[in-house]
C-alpha cells in the first residue's frame, strides 16, 4: 500500500482548497444563493442587541415605545433569519453533494483507466475506502465547515460593525484578540492535518487486515491463526485509537484557548465601558442603560461565533485531508497509455515476440530484479494453438499477460499482425483477446449481463453462447433464467458452471485470439468433460495460447512450448517432446504419478 512521505511539507490550506475548486466551485447559482442567505442571516444578528436599546430606553424608562412594535420586530427578525439560514444551508449542501458526485465519478473513471501499477501499490480495500467513504466523509465535513465559516464569519463582521457604530474605542480592544486566536488555530490545524493523514493510513491498514481475513477465512481457521490475526488487528486498532486521541486533543484545545482570550477581552471591555459610563455621568455623551446593555449583549454574542470559528478548523482540516486522497488518486495516478492504431477489422491473430525480457522489481515489470522472462522469441500463426507448460514460476502467466498489455516488457518487441503492441489503441488491442482462466471473475449482475460484458446485449446471442458452453440446461432451470443474479463473483454456481460461464463470455466476445490459463484445473471428471467440449468449440478458428498441465488440454495443441526460468527450453508437438525425454517428459511423468 502507498505510504506518504514521512517528512513531506504540509501544503497551505488555501492551496489545498484551490484543488477542490473544479469539483465544488462551478455551481454559480447555488453559490450566489448561499452567499445571499448567509449575508442576510448575518445582518439580522446585530438587530437582536439593537432592539434592546429602544426597548430599555423607551419601553421601560419613559414608556413611549408602541407595544405592537415589539412582537412585530422580534418575530420579523427571526422569520427573516430562518429563511436566510434555510436558503444558505440548502445551497451549500447542494454544492457539496454535486461536488462529491463529480469527484466520485472522476475517481471511478480514473480507476477504470489507471496504470496497472496502481493495483500493486494499493489494496482493493484502500481504493474502495477512498472512492466511497473518504469522499463521503470529506464532503460532509466540508459542508459543516463551509456552513460554519459562512454563518459565523459574516456574523462576526456584522456584530463588530454594530459595536464600532456604538463605541469604536471599546471595539478596538477586540483587535488584540484576533492575531492570538489566528495563531492558535493555525498551529493546531497543522498538527491536526498531520494526524489526519496518519489516521487515513492507519485506517487503510486496518481495513486491509479485515479484507485479508475475509478472503482467507478458511485458511486462517484451518491453521488455527485466529489468535494471531486478532492480535494483529488489535495492534492496528490501538494505533488508530492513539491517533484519534491525539486528534481530539488538538481539536479540543482550540475551544478553551480561544474562549479564554475572548473572556479576557470581554472583561476588559466591560471594565472600560463601566469606567466611561461613570466618567461621563451627566454629560451629553454618557452611555445610557439601553446603550450599555446593547453593547454588552453584542459583545457576549461574539463569543459563540468565535468559539464555533475555532471549532471549524477541525472539520475543515479533516474534510480537506479526506478529499485530498481522492484528488491525489485523480491527478497523480497515471493512465494507461496506448497508440492510435485501430485496424479496419478483427485482427488475423499473428503474434510475434522478439527478444522479450521482463524483470521483477516494479509493478510494471521495469525493475532491476530477477528476470521473469529472458529473451523470448516466439511467432504464432493465425489460427494456431500453442500450449505453454513448465514448472511454477517459469513465466507462463507473465508471457500471456504481455499480450493484452497487462504487463509491460522491459525490453524487446511484441507485435500483432505486424504492428507493435505499443502502437495499438488499448481498447482496440484488448478487443482482439478473450481470456478464460482458473480464477473466474464475475460481476454481481445477471447471467446475461456477465456473458455480454462490455458489449450490447442480444438475448438470442447470449442463449446461443450458453448452448455452446454447455450451460443452457442449467440456466433454464434457474428461477429467472438468464436474468438470474449470479451473486458475489458467481458464488451461487459450481466451479464447472463458473468456468462454462466464462467460456460463454469469451464466445460472446468472439475475439480472434484466445488465452486459456489453467481453464480446466481443479474440476471433477464430469465438469472437465463439459468444459473441454465447450473449449473445443471456442478454440475453432482462433489463435490460442493454452497454459495447462492436463494432458487432455495439451495433446491436441499444434505446438507445445516448455518454459523454465523465463526461457523457452523445448518446443514441438506433444508426441515429439515425449520422445525427446526432456523436461516436458519429466513434467508429464510427475503429473501422471500425482493422479
How would you portray this structure in words?
With about 600 residues, the protein is of the alpha/beta class. The chain has 3 domains: about 15-330, Up-down Bundle (ABC transporter transmembrane region fold); about 350-430 and about 515-520 and about 545-595, 3-Layer(aba) Sandwich (Rossmann fold), CATH 3.40.50.300; about 435-510, Rossmann fold. The protein has helices spanning about 15-20, 20-25, 30-45, 45-60, 70-115, 120, 125-165, 170, 175-215, 215-220, 225-250, 255-280, 290-310, 315-330, 395-400, 425-430, 445-450, 460-470, 470-475, 495-510, 525-540, 550-555, 575-580, 585-595; strands spanning about 350-360, 370-380, 385-390, 410-415, 420, 435, 515, 545, 560-565, 565-570. It has a 6-stranded mixed beta sheet with strand order 6-7-8-3-9-10, with helices on both faces. Strands 2-1-4-5 form a 4-stranded antiparallel beta sheet, covered by helices on one side. The protein is elongated.
Distance between the termini: 40 Å
What class do helices, strands and sheet pairing give? Answer: alpha/beta
Mean pLDDT across all amino acids: 80
What radius of gyration results from the CA coordinates?
A: 35 Å
- Strand segment count: 10
Strand content: 5-15%
> Strand order across the biggest sheet?
6-7-8-3-9-10
Helix content: 55-70%
Give me the oligomer status: single chain
State the shape. elongated
| Poorly predicted tracts of residues | 1-9, 281-285, 362-367
Q: What is the level 1 CATH name of the largest domain?
A: Mainly Alpha
CATH superfamily of the largest domain: ABC transporter type 1, transmembrane domain
- Please summarize the sheet with the most strands: 6 strands, mixed
CATH topology title of the largest domain: ABC transporter transmembrane region fold
Instruction: Please give the CATH architecture of the largest domain.
Output: Up-down Bundle
> How many separate helices?
24
Number of domains: 3
